[in-house]
Amino acid sequence: MNIKHYIYLSAAIAFSLSSCSDDNGMENDFEPKTYNVLGKVEKGPFVSGSTITIQPMDGNLQVLGSLYSATIQDDLGNFSFGSKLFEAPYAELTANGYFFNEVEGELSSGTLNLRALVDLSDETTVNVNLLTHLKYQRIQKLIAKGLKFEEANRQAQKELFTAFGLQKYAEKDASTFSISGGTDESAVLIAISSLLLVDRSEAALTEYLAKLCREFGENGEFGNSTLQQISEDKKTLSNLLSSVRENIIKRYDELGLNIEVKELGCFIDWDNDGLAGNETLQDGQEVKLETSEINVPNEGGVYTISISSPIPVYLTPIVNKDDDGPTDNITEENFFTEIYEHIENDDISMEKSINENKLTIKVSRLNSRTAKSKPVTLYDCLGNVLGEVKVTQDGNGNTSIPKLGKTGEQVVAGFALPIARGFSDFNLIEQYYHYNREADLVSRYIYPDCSNIKNIWSDFYRANRMIMIFKEKEAEQLGVYQDYLNVFSAMHYYYMAIAWKDVPYINYVPDIDNAYNISRTPIYNIFSDLKANLEKAIDNLEEKKNESLSTDVNKYFFVSKDVARILLADIYMYQGDYNQAEKLLEKVVSNGFYELDASNYNDKETITNLFDNGSSRETIFATRYESQPRGNISIGTPMLVPIMTYTDVVLSYAESLFKNGKTTEAESQLQKVTTAKHLNITGGNTLEKIKDARLQVMLYTNTNFAFMQRNNFAKDVYEIEEYRQFLPIPQQEIITNPSMTQNPGY
Predict the structure, then answer these.
(1) Are residues 361 and 244 in the same domain?
(2) DSSP H or E run through 82
(3) Is the pTM of this model over 0.85?
């Protein structure tokens, strides 16, 4: 190469370097300047002892001068490099250390590296955080493409904030954001930091950040798989936002700083529409519905309701805050899902859609006897309720009552067992009274600590709780079993009132905290409610022969009108209203479903035959419970207690006729029993003859005690003191229930 060519080439190279330097932001006219650089390092805040370095750089991000080091001064993440001379205004800050994990609410178990590229001529107070870290590589990429630092930083900032739907906050540089500032920008930093940290260890976060920085640095946006991961992380974070906010406030309070943290939900793009903060109502905003209630006929229909809302409205939240995933645990709620044998449309069935601010509800025919109601709830994307339309649909009174389903059968069998046990023990008490003349059994075996007394009480209340829960759950569905359940409730409450007089009357599902502090209800109030329920049941139950001895749980459960009539007549007789009792019992007699036979309910062989055969022309309602006989004088817990028999109906009918002055008719009914049972009854008036008949044939039916009580025979027949016409309240109940009082005499 000759000298002339060499001179030209050298000049060209010099011109090229000069041009390149100017185009890439090299500040040739920048005079060295001293800066006192200070700020914070925050993920959550880095803790005291963490390290930070600052490296001066030129406009091409080439290293200039010396690297300076400092240590985080306190647990707030503060640092300061002191006064340093910089040959250019650009610098790289790198921090490494432990930090406060705002998601977990504790210090990290591993360290984290965070970086920032800053222009010191704009601001000497600079913060290092996840936002500065995420845009680091993007700034490098854009400067390599020829942009000046200011332009590259501005573009990277806008792209990064746009990626999170937070572009409205992009005007302020991320290096000025601080968690403790109490501003919108502070909330932006917390929201993004928490979103990237949720469900990740420090090592996993480091790996994840490397991927995010690489993708964003190359393209100014995140890849599809990353966007999908961010969407999943939003769902997880939605359940944690409140605790994140509380954790940060608590942490700074422990460090002696009272800070404000705004509600973080407004700083995340939950519906991925590219704009955070437009998913929830702001102060003063509301959603208006054209109507909040629609009444639908049984056959169904289509309804359209206008919606006025400043934000998107959903029928199902995009982010379900309460979604804990699937569970196999059986709870009280999901246990009652098969009350009925399968039927179609047993609840309100609707199709719902929202289109162009119109809510359309299409309701199908309802296969239920009773009216049903169901809400249509409107949400924002986070699951906050914005409004509700109550849909009420008429029932169809002609709908057939379905058989019990799997759950229904289990529940009925569940309360049938304690009812049977209770009646079995109750009959043992009747036997103590019956044989008291011979062996003085009442004073020996009937006292507050008596196990039989305690068993009757606990079994009947156990059955009652199951019945009340079943009533509540069934009422929420078809509501067609309510009368049947009321009859079973009346059955045990009638016997409890006869035995103890005033007892706690629980016709609801009590809170567990109040279940052991319920006072006694006057017997009059109990009977008033039972009468109302039984009268309604008589109107709605089927007129048929009752078949409780069948092994089919449906035949046990679906009691007939006659069962309700007999219970109601028993209550009327106890209250001395024999006119009402006579009418009810006359109906049972005239139905012709039952007839007298030679059964003698003082004879255990009769009871055994009923149990073995599973049918009887006389038995109206019986409970089965297998147990071994015990004691002496032939006393033992019966395997089966026929608590409603046609013999009892006829004798009670005769009693009512006699009390109503119809002695001849009463004698006629009594004669039917004495003839069928081959009884020898002599002397006395008709009522005394009925008493003698009962003593001869009704021992195992749980009916004699009530008869003797209401007719003032108990003291003489059983040879007992006045107070022993009622049983003692179980001692355990007195101890555990502070509102309970003991019956007089015990």
Answers:
(1) no
(2) strand 78-86
(3) no
